[in-house]
Amino acid sequence: MAKGPEAALHLVATPIGAARDITLRALDILREADVLAAEDTRTLRHLMEIHGVPLAGRTVLPYHDHNGPSMRPRLMAALADGKSVAYASDAGTPLVADPGFQLARTAIEEGHVVRAAPGASAVLAALTVAGLPTDRFLFAGFAPQKQAARRTFLSTFGQVPATLVFYESPKRLASMLADMAKTLGETRHLAVCRELTKRFEEIRRGTICELAEAYANEPSPKGEVVIVVGPPDGERHNPDDIDDMLRKALETLRIRDAADAVAQATGLPRRDVYRRALELKDD
Fold it and tell me: Does the keyword Membrane apply (predicted)?
């Protein structure tokens, strides 16, 4: 007889679109776990039906932002009894802009084991198809809904030397892009990724200005949206300034470490900075 999952809180990633993106391990956990919990019980039950995973008398317990305080003690009690608990978000990886964060933190604080069953993630899917640098990225989640708060929020990321990833409602996409143009700069490259892995998947790429103008003149799109913004344009740095930064860094650091430090400070591609560091060292 196959051994069931470990007595732990298992955070199960579920598909963001295509049902076949579920992993074999996730199906095993859903089949064998003593207790099932989900952000949306209907979604999880439907997914299990698609893949022929029986409930076998189990009830899928709802766990979301609104009932978390009342439901967590019940799930913690199951863990304390040595049971395995599987939690699945509505779609994607639990804890990424998801109510599972507080559940996992409480389990850890109470000394229970927490395991990840990794799988689909809208963040990683968007980074994969955006065509923007992925060596360093920052997931910023959802921006505030009101314009003033949203602009303040966006301005804090203006000089972060990394690709930025945001979630956004399709109804607010046009206003979000307009505020990005004001706060992050019109020339930064961007990709709007909509309905990832689904039948009507769409990826639109361009500068922030180009896509802000395009969506301002179109009806609001439908479906889930992920916005990926490239890092700040490193071309604004004077080459002489870059050389000075590298020379100073090379006084105390190895070539690789000096290039890493300058690339991180300027947002320039590391390979270009490393190549220049080699040239300066040879000179």
Answer: no
- Do 143 and 182 meet the contact criterion of CB atoms below 8 Å apart? no
**Nearest Cα residue to 43 out of 123, 98, 107, 108:** 98
First to last CA, the chain: 68
Residue 227 carries which DSSP code? E
Q: What's the CA gap between 51 and 224, in Å, rounded?
A: 24
Write down the mean pLDDT value for the chain: 93
What token pair was written down for 31?
A: 């089949």
pLDDT above 80 (res 60): yes
Distance set, CA 282 to CA 26, 37, 255, 279 (Å): 53, 60, 11, 5
Q: How far is CA 232 from the centre of its chain?
A: 20
Tokens of 103: 């559940």
Are 126 and 166 spatial neighbours (Cβ–Cβ below 8 Å)?
no
Can you say whether the dihedral through the CA atoms of 171, 174, 179, 180 is positive or negative? Answer: positive
- pLDDT, one tens digit per residue, over 256-270 is 998 988 887 776 778
Contacts of 171 (CB under 8 A, 6+ apart): 220
What DSSP state is assigned to residue 110? T
Mean pLDDT of 146-170: 94
Buried b (16+ CB within 10 A) or exposed e, 191-216: bbbbbbbeeeeebebebbbbbbbebe
Interval 78-101 mean pLDDT: 93
- Number of other residues whose CB lies within 10 A of the CB of residue 155: 13
